[in-house]
């Protein structure tokens, strides 16, 4: 089956958002994420990231993961082969890559979560489109509870950081071994954050992605896509104010306590609605965004390399710029990293069909299938 050009463009676009959201956690102490910046420009940058980026792009990536699962099922059926062994092997390989990525690059890794949630998606491989949509919808209140809990934990962590000057990330200022030790120390906390922040909505998006494949969402003239596109004004009318409430909670503009927790919970509705807006806009503009397709065709490589470049810029083993730039400058650096990775992918695809890490994942999964 030929690759979907629109899907590759969407993945390339999603990598930009992922980079913008993740970079502060690679470039600043965790304590810096628990409060609002003092400068007006940095405050505006954090607000824009909260409004337009946080939570939206992992939903988009997860949606495409579910769509890709549908592609794998269909490919196996056409070949007359069982889909279970290669999919299980791919999940195991993805989980191993996630562990390595968390320890060696970025403790906020989502690959391990994808591997674990993917096992749940397998049980829904034969589910109808309406059932998949109902399951996805049922995840929204669970996500709201999870986000509200994160708001509560964020308040506790902020108090602890102020009282003890904790969460300084000093290991990232030293050698690569120091940074690795710091990542290991941070990982238990980030695992919990990923479970709450990403888990419910990622699984919901998995289900919607599989439903999208079964309904031919990315096919030319797709009725499913046309329905979503017609709802664009409604999606915007919901997404912008709801995400505005979430951004206000992040910036500390809401009263402490329940109002702030409810502001965090608003992301459960705001993230998927704005992600849907991005899907419609990017797919419509895909013919003009062809430069995104190469990096989108190697999403694992793009994801990992963005983290490696960030480490080389900010950690002590590289340029050592850790905790020297504000939020506005970090948005610019994230865009620059994404641009470098996008251009490198264009050059890479002239000679090789897959990115190096994507090829390595495929090879590892193949070996696991043979071993079993």
From TrEMBL:
Signal peptide limits:
none
**What domain of life does the native source organism fall in?**
Bacteria
Kindly provide the name given to this protein in its UniProt entry.
Putative membrane protein
The residues that cross the membrane are: 57-75, 87-104, 135-153, 189-213, 234-254, 260-283, 328-348
Boundaries of every DUF418 domain copy: 213-365
Asked if the keyword Membrane belongs to this entry, the reply reads yes
State the UniProt keywords alphabetically.
Answer: Membrane, Transmembrane, Transmembrane helix
- PANTHER family found in the cross-reference section: INNER MEMBRANE PROTEIN
The answer, when asked if Transmembrane is one of the entry's keywords, is yes
């Amino acid at each position: 089956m030929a690759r979907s050009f629109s899907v590759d463009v969407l993945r390339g676009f999603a990598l930009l958002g992922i980079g913008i959201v993740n970079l502060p956690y690679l470039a600043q102490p965790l304590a810096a994420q628990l409060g609002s910046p003092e400068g007006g420009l940095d405050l505006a940058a954090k607000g824009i990231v909260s409004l337009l980026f946080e939570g939206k792009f992992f939903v988009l990536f997860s949606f495409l993961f579910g769509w890709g699962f549908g592609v794998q099922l269909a490919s196996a059926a056409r070949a007359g082969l069982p889909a279970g062994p290669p999919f299980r092997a791919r999940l195991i390989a993805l989980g191993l890559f996630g562990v390595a990525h968390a320890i060696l690059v970025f403790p906020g890794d989502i690959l391990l979560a994808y591997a674990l949630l993917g096992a749940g998606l397998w049980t829904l491989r034969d589910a109808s489109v309406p059932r998949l949509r109902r399951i996805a919808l049922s995840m929204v209140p669970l996500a709201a509870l999870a986000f509200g809990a994160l708001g509560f934990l964020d308040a506790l962590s902020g108090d602890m950081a102020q009282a003890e000057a904790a969460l300084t990330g000093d290991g990232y200022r030293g050698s690569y071994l120091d940074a690795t030790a710091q990542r290991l120390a941070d990982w238990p906390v980030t695992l919990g954050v990923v479970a709450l922040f990403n888990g419910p909505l990622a699984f919901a998006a998995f289900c919607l992605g599989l439903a999208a494949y079964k309904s031919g969402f990315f096919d030319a003239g797709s009725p499913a896509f046309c329905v979503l596109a017609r709802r664009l004004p409604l999606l915007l009318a919901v997404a912008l104010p709801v995400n505005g409430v979430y951004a206000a909670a992040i910036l500390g503009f809401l009263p402490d306590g329940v109002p702030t927790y409810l502001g965090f919970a608003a992301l459960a509705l705001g993230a998927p609605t704005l992600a849907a807006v991005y899907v419609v806009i990017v797919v419509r503009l895909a013919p003009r965004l062809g430069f995104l397709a190469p990096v989108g065709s190697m999403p694992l490589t793009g994801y990992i390399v963005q983290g490696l470049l960030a480490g080389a810029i900010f950690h002590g083993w590289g340029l050592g710029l850790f905790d020297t730039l504000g939020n506005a400058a970090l948005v610019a650096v994230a865009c620059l990293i994404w641009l470098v990775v996008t251009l490198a992918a264009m050059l890479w695809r002239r000679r090789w069909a897959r990115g190096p890490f994507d090829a390595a994942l495929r090879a590892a999964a193949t070996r696991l299938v043979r071993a079993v």
